[in-house]
């Protein structure tokens, strides 16, 4: 049987954005990226060890950036495996 080392799970409330006030958990070290692909929008929730919350960088959605030359982009975040990438549960809808 193969066993994998366990990763620490981060659990806390989301502060801001579409997840505001919701309880979230992830085992990714930096946080969660929420994507609304039909609209090409994203929100980045950074894990704060100090407040034990997932804090959104901006309440307004940011356009998905796939350009490697940008300082922060979704593709790099996925490749580095530091953020969990989630699809918005109401993607493409008015919310």
Description:
The chain is mostly beta strands and 95 residues long. The chain has one domain (13-87). It has one helix at residues 74-80, and strands at residues 10-15, 23-26, 31-36, 41-48, 53-56, 62-63, 83-87. Strands 1, 2, 3, 4, 5, 6 and 7 form a seven-stranded mixed beta sheet that branches. The radius of gyration is 14 Å and the shape is globular. The mean pLDDT is 85.
Globally, the shape reads globular
- Count of structural domains: 1
| Rounded average pLDDT | 85
Low-confidence segments, ≥5 residues, pLDDT <50? Answer: none
The overall strand count is 7
Number of helices: 1
Radius of gyration: 14 Å
| Main sheet characteristics | 7 strands, mixed
Ends apart, CA distance between termini: 46 Å
- Report the order of strands and helices: EEEEEEHE
Strand content range: 35-45%
Structural class: mainly beta
Instruction: State the helicity in percent bands.
Output: under 10%
How is the secondary structure organized here?
Layout (H helix, E strand, L loop, with lengths): L9 E6 L7 E4 L4 E6 L4 E8 L4 E4 L5 E2 L10 H7 L2 E5 L8
Parallel strand pairs: 1-5, 3-7
Antiparallel strand pairs: 1-2, 3-4, 4-5, 4-6
